[in-house]
Write a structure and sequence with these properties.
This protein is α+β, with helices and mostly antiparallel strands. Strands 2-1-6-5-4-3 form a six-stranded mixed sheet. It is built from two helices and six strands; from the N terminus they run αββαββββ.
Amino acid sequence: MEILPYDPAASTAETRAVAEKLVAVLQGEGEGFNLFDGTAIWVAGSYWWSGMLDPDKAARVQTHFHRCLQGGADGLTNSLRSIIADGNKAAIEMLMHGIWKDGRTFTKDIHIAIDVADGHIVNYREYGFDDAFFALEAEEPLW
């Protein structure tokens, strides 16, 4: 992934609007936004699902993750803590919460860094602060 250089001349307002749209999607409220369409996706960690993910792999990881939660995708809440946008860059801090199917509580702080160009996310980087809960083994190979 080639991270875009910082562009202070880019519209901070447009970048913030894109970040807000991403947050709405992550909270299950947004429509018409596909993170997996042409976006370079990287997730921190050393698990089978970490690193660079092409759109197909990212969608499979997300589907698997939702299957592991009580209530599936509806069993996950993503609460916004902050958005900071400047030029073509935005930083998003969120708290994810759900309950695994085995009854354990899942709570994870995440930081998402995005690069925006022409009103679209071109790079998505996700950093987690509690990867222990994310060490989910897939019941079957996902790729």
